[in-house]
Request: fold
Amino acid sequence: MKKNKVLALAIAGALAAASAATIAPAAQAADTVKIAFQGPLTGPEAQTGTDEVRGVKLALKLYNATNPAVKVELVEVDDQGDPAIAGTVAPGVAKDTSIIGMVGAAYSGATIASLPSYKAAPALAMISPSATRPSLTDPTSPDYGQPVFHRIVSNDALQGPALVRVATKGVSKPAVYVVDDQSSYATGLRDVVVPTIGDQGIKWLVGTDSVVKGTTDFSAVIAKIKKVKANVVIYTGYYADGAKFAKQLRDKGYKGVLAGGDGVLNSAFIKLAGTKAATGYRFTAPTTPLDIASPKLTAEFKKEFKADPGVYTTEAFDATNMFLAAIKAGKTTRADVLAYIKTMKHKNTAGVTISFNKNGDLNGAGLINAFVVKGGKIVLSGLA
Amino acid sequence: MDFSVLVDQFFALTIDGIALGFIYSLIALGYTMVYGVLRLINFANSEVFMLGTFATILTSKNIFGYADDTEPLTGMKLAYTLLACMLVSMLVCAITGVLVEIIAYRRLRKMGSNRLTTLISAIGVSIVISETVRIFTSSAPANNPRLLDKIYLISYMGTEVNIGSVRIPISAFEVRLDTLLVIVFAVLLLIGVDRFVKHSRLGKGIRAVSMSEQNSQLMGVNLNKVVSSTFFIAGLMTGAASFFYITVYESTKFNVGFELGLAAFTAAVLGGIGNIRGAFFGGIALGILEIYAATVFGTQWKAVTAFVVLVLVLLFKPNGLFGESLQQARV
Reply:
């Protein structure tokens, strides 16, 4: 009997301690809140997440350096760009209510897998710097991300036609072959690219194929490309496989144009494909390089990370600043932040005022840039 | 379904398939030899392969100091660099194989545990190795500089002749230096192992243990020595496969063993597991089948087709293609 009493007391004590522990962070919440970044920080596409999270870190550093009333901490969430992993990490992020905003997810497939967790109350506002699959902002699609999903870039409904324009530019009789990797992003972009080619009136499209993400041997696709004598090959997947594919195509004597979307555009692309195979590769992406948007920030960036800014660094920086603006305006709960960003007007790094429409896309015409590999580097070649 | 590409590019695709198939064959040997001796499916073999690919890259990058954009080598320099890479990869795999046996299987075997325990131990080793490499490389892919230039020795684009109204396509025919190298060396290695197991003293020991563990011990065969040697030889072959894989595809990643290992294991079963020649032909058959399937049905159907064929073969020949007929050649 005595023993039982001691035990009961111990349990009660433990419970009290536990509830005290859960109350404590809530009391602190007023002066420190958290923003999460979700993307591939390890894995074959880790460079994408690294380039983006550095943009987030830079924005937070500049903000916290001003000694604000509410400090902001970063939570890094690694989904490896993989929907399966995203589905397992998202519930944990959703549960941590000290996280009041999410920059990400970086990838479309990972976004779709995470959405159910972030939509559940209390809903977590998302601003993605790079998830471009059209269905995410399409009210008729099951992938529709409202009320939580927003993106700070144009989507693939705009990128698809731009990619076709860039890929076929200067080619007198285009014979286009389109290859995807069956990911959510790649099939989404393909579904825009293929009808665009069909719309040209002339029979430009000579074939399509799907490979499995992580494919090592592309012999069969290359044989098909050679057979139909394609002179433009568009790959709608990501850079790790895109680089292998480009290399094998060139090794097999393919001389035509190679092009890809924002999934292939990455500083690691040249390293993986080798300068020789990468030279001349054409890309499109709804991104503005940081050195174009702001030379001053670029200098700051280089000093901080001892590295060059990458793809979507600018957009990740801007997305973070939108959340920081909400926090500055005194919004420190998930609900308040979500409501605030839906109506806010924000001047981005390039000096353009941006705002979201009701589906989570940017208002306005949008922007797609074209890039090309030249002299061992990826350079901006203008508007796509 | 489109057969026209297959018809037009028949020989070119077949040669690619054979080269890939030989890589499968060499890894399949790793599975099949161990199975022949211990009746154990050594799942760690796929990770041994993965370690070999990294060993090859480390040798060319860190020991020889070649950078990503090194110009391809020529002459003697090329020969000894490639040879060194291959030997390092083979030794790393062989030693890893032997260590895996000593650490993860030997004691279980001595204590007379059942086969299931060893199987779980094998899966455990496999996970430990691949996760360790994943953590050390942050899951990022690693690239090998191009040491061997991908030169075409024969490059015939194919054509067609019309006899009357009948169109007869003549397939393209291409032979590239790196694929040719893989084919020649793999054949030599596979013949070498086959001869070794058949004629050498140790080979006889391996075959004796394969027939009956207890009886061979009664006849004075040193069981541990034979088992270690088997793992060593299996590792050598797997290491050669790693080197060839890197020479052709030039990049690797912590999970590369999964796909390749599964394919090689399939090849071993297809040919008849426990049978050296079965691994040889199973590998080639699978390599060619995969490339044909990818060409005819689309690349995304490659794995599906390979496994459907495997199930069909096993339905009619449960011991694999060569399981019975080459019984005497089995290890």
Chain A has two domains: 31-153+291-351, 157-285+369-383. Chain A touches chain B at residues 42-44, 46, 80, 182, 209-212, 214-221, 223-224, 226-227, 240, 244, 247, 251, 253, 271-272, 274-275 (CB under 8 Å). Confidence is low (pLDDT under 50) at residues 15-29 of chain A.
